[in-house]
Specification:
This protein is α+β, with helices and mostly antiparallel strands. 20% of the residues lie in helices and 37% in strands.
């Protein structure tokens, strides 16, 4: 057994119990996958990160769901940098992270942490009727063809007509598996649609989103930074967002309001990255005794 320092951070929020929580285990990148996934299940969070030294960046970050390791995630990136900054683990306002999706550049702007996600990759279109059945909505609630988009982690971006449709959506696991198959996934990958409306949850917002999750994850993600980047790329590509920088909101109906500033890098026809910025609030910290295997 070994003791590791950890910080529990609410990301995309400047207050306790807002945004999305993530536990950051400092020095835990050496731990095996089964220990890391067991720790995520123990916390009941959607994701946790485990850091370590890197030969190609300032720090290595590993990202875990309750079921598996993933290459990248947005709110855990914000949480990781907020935790490191609170402990004085780096100096200045620039930082690079080695992730499974490549090197992620970080820029600090006052209290905000800005990450530059990789250039968007646009994958297959998923049939509207298939996505509609997976989220228990009529097909006409979806106003633009759903498509798999990744800025480090792929999501089936699905634009809904209004807040009423957004709030009525719920997952149906059988049709969701068919969405995953249509997206080219297999096994435990579920390709949950990232649902977005072109109206903020508050007057400050430009979009309002939800990400419903399949077991063993919690049923809904309060704020999803990686999906926000993919969603923004989709909106710019198809002319649904006219602003070069906008405010994305998520989690308000869960009582965990989160907010991000999203900025396009490059022209709409040749985006080279997506900047997603938000704040992080360190809620608690301590030590955790983790085994080398379970």
């Amino acid at each position: 057994m070994s003791w590791f320092d950890f910080d529990w951070v609410d990301a995309f929020s400047d207050r306790a119990f807002g945004g999305n929580g993530c536990a950051v285990v400092h020095g835990g990148a050496i731990l095996p996958v089964d220990v890391c996934t067991a720790y995520v299940r123990e916390t009941s969070l959607v994701e946790c990160t485990f850091t370590g030294p890197s030969d190609v960046a300032d720090i290595r970050v590993r990202y875990f769901l309750a079921s598996r390791e993933i290459p990248f995630a947005g709110h855990p990136t914000i949480a990781t940098v907020a935790a490191m900054r609170s402990r004085g683990l780096f100096k200045g306002d620039e930082l690079t992270l080695e992730t499974g999706a490549g090197i992620v550049a970080i820029h600090l702007i006052g209290d905000e942490i800005e990450m530059t996600q990789v250039a968007p990759q646009f994958g297959v279109h998923v049939p509207i009727d298939l996505v509609a059945s997976a989220i228990s909505l009529p097909a006409d609630a979806i106003i633009s063809p759903p498509q798999l988009v990744s800025t480090g982690l792929p999501f089936c971006v699905t634009v809904l007509r209004d807040h009423q449709a957004l709030r009525a959506a719920h997952l149906v696991e059988g049709p969701l598996r068919k969405v995953a198959e249509a997206a080219g996934y297999s096994g435990s990958d579920m390709a949950e649609p990232f649902l977005v409306t072109l109206q903020g949850a508050t007057e400050a917002g430009d979009t309002f989103s939800r990400l419903l999750l399949a077991p063993p994850s919690p049923p809904e993600d309060p704020f999803t930074g990686s999906a926000t980047g993919a969603m923004a790329a989709y909106l710019w590509k198809y002319g649904l967002m006219q602003k070069d920088s906008f405010t994305a909101e998520q989690g308000h109906d869960m009582g965990r309001p989160g907010q991000a500033t999203v900025t396009r890098v490059g022209p709409t026809e040749a985006m080279t990255g997506i900047k997603v910025a938000g704040k992080g609030h360190v809620l608690m910290r301590g030590q955790v005794d983790l085994p080398q295997m379970v």
